[in-house]
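#structure-requests
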Amino acid sequence: MIMKQNILLLAGLLCLTACSPSKQETTTDTYHSLRGEAVKTTPVQIGSHGDELTLNGDVSCDESLVRKIFIPCTGRVRGLTVEVGDAVRRGQVLAVIHSEEAADYNKSLTDADAQIRIAERDYEMRQDMHHSGMASDKEVAEAHAALIAAHAERKRLGAVAGINGFGSRATAVLRSPISGYVTVKNIYDDSYVSPGDEGDGEALEIANLSRVWVIADVYESDIAKIRQGDPVTVTTMAYDSEVFHGHIDKVYHVLDSESKTMKVRITLDNAHGLLRPGMFATVHVSTGTADKALYRVPAQSIVFDNGTDYVVVDDGHRHYRRQPVKTAHVSSDYAYILGGLHVGEQVVSKNALLVFNTLGNE
């Protein structure tokens, strides 16, 4: 519904442009028609800009939010249905490996339970005999130590079974340790697997993408300009209207021998899941070399027409007007103006070109 209203508004504005006489200011009626969802204003501020460096990079998983699932034993894979890119939940069963090793391990657990029962009976018997004077303190202590050892062995076997996912049957269950997405898959349903089949035995990899890394390349000639902590903005081809804010949290102080570039890392919040591993990213780095304070407006406020930069000012008296400005610097977020504006003036920051065109030619 909102999109339909905006389309109707834009159509009305084009009619106003075609039908109204040439002028630099709006009438009161036109002013009211422009106000609303389609047009927004932002106050002029004072700010300074530094040298901005543009880097190319890629989105990748935050390694602290990645978990690898390894093949615990030799056997046949059953029930594997997930593919790379699928969402999974923590604790979800991803596959089951039917294995002779798992069966042998379950037998060891059963034997350990039986050994505990034997040790418990022997300890109780030794205690009764001790009360009757038929067993020494040493014999009771030895029986108690044997019981403790039997419990310890059962606990050890249970811990190993839990690590390897051994179930009550002759199976090992592969579960997702976290909620996230499958990023690597090295096993297939109904295939025969063994630890170490795929390098280090990694069967699946799960990544939580609520936070991601952007790894960017810095050319050798620009290394001196980069510092850990420098603020950055990141844009992507997939979401050209979205700007992601962060800072350089790690500098890799080693150059690639072939490309002669050094890598830097930016960690970004990705709660909405827009950023995905493998995306191309453009990183704009503010290197902190600040110039003098200038007037600052959103970069979307600048309209270029016939060799001159303009902003559209809401003068506070139910009129818009064009204001020519001299732009000193334009970054991905802001434009820095040398003069022609006053702090606090409201300039159009959404659909500035549309409003500009309604004002006619000078």
